[in-house]
Amino acid sequence: MEKSEIEHYLRDIWVREFEKEEKLVIDEFNKDDIELLAKKEYVKIEDGFVNLTEIGERLGRSLVRKHRIAEKVVADLFLADMEEMEELADQIEHVMSEEVEDNICRILGNPENCPHNNPIPKGDSDNDLGNEYSVPLVSCHSGESGEVSHIKTEDARKLRKIMNLGLIPGSRICLIQKFPNYVFQLGNTQLAVDKELANEIFIKLDE
Fold first, then answer.
1. 10 three-state secondary structure
2. Contact 104, 68 (CB under 8 A)
3. pLDDT tens for residues 141-159?
4. Is residue 162 within 8 Å of 154, Cβ to Cβ?
């Protein structure tokens, strides 16, 4: 089996075992495939049933997380339909690093569900502490500065507009004025957004 086939196997087994709580009978699977997964210590076979090992569970959960994050970003940023979304997500998940995965989640405001409304498993590095101390741009005062923490919007058009301005997690900005629009400094450039967009850009203010 190729690496991508192994990953699809582990993703499917994880969903069935941990979300659907199914009992997986060994006869359901290709004998050679299951023996290979067992040899790699991803699964264990006991009394005719297949279960993920601790290593397999961790990898399977990570793969499900990456796939559902990929579905979310494809659906939200590219407005792909369900068929296109599945195809693109399958391609993206196999090349998505943990750093890219974390950055995408921050951009999307740490989504809890994929477009199919299935839960996105928590990652090992998930930490909502940064979001806890973030405030929307509309709550900032003129002269305050900080770092963009995350974007929180369900509207793909708004998300693309915000990102096109260069407002991605980690960007440093300083609010200059709040009326009639929210004007802020980003690098050497002054940009402006309306109140609706400013309410969806979250900032971790400097102490």
1. helix
2. no
3. 999 999 998 888 877 788 8
4. no
Q: What is the pLDDT of residues 1-11, one digit of tens each?
A: 888 899 999 99
- Distance from C-alpha of 94 to C-alpha of 82, rounded to nearest angstrom: 19
To the nearest 10°, report the CA torsion of 14, 131, 127, 167. Answer: 80
Q: Is the entire prediction scored with pTM above 0.90? A: no
CA 108 – CA 160 distance, rounded (Å): 11
Burial group, residue 94, by CB count within 10 angstroms (0-12, 13-18, 19+): middle
Strand segments, DSSP code E, in 60-180 are 135-136, 145-151, 172-177
> CA distances (Å), 1 to each of 37, 54, 104, 162, in order?
10, 21, 29, 42
